[in-house]
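Quick log. Single chain, no ligands specified.
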Amino acid sequence: MDIPECAEISSILLESESNSGELAQKSILSNELSSISNLSFDAPCKISMNNDQTDTDVKELSKKLQENIYILHEELRLYEEANKKENSIRREVVNTDDAIEQLNSIRNCVNDLKNKLKGSEELINEKTRENMLLKEQLKDLEIRTLTSEDKFVSCRNCVVF
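-> predicted structure:
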């Protein structure tokens, strides 16, 4: 007597197993379900008991088999959930790696900007020194010009005849 639920679960397992080669647990569950679904209940022929007892045994075995199928189905569901979570975590790891890569790129840009800023500060300091020198030179020139004008004015006053 083949059990349709076992065949259905077994085919689902085989299909999902072909989609992912790394699922050893699914393979084990699939093999268990296949072996259960291939059972036939020839017990009444082999056991010499009265018919009532045999029917009871078959019913008990069938009930236990249904319970086992339910348990296997639940284990499969839990395994698929765990597999989904694992895939989600793997995607998060990839996203985290991308974020780390972007952060490193930003750090490199910030370091480049710091180096440029240091270069700019040095250039500003150099230009400030040049400006100070030019201001001093301008003051010297103004002083000389005033002195020259004073001499010229005084000479003018003296020389005019």
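The two ends are 148 Å apart (CA to CA).
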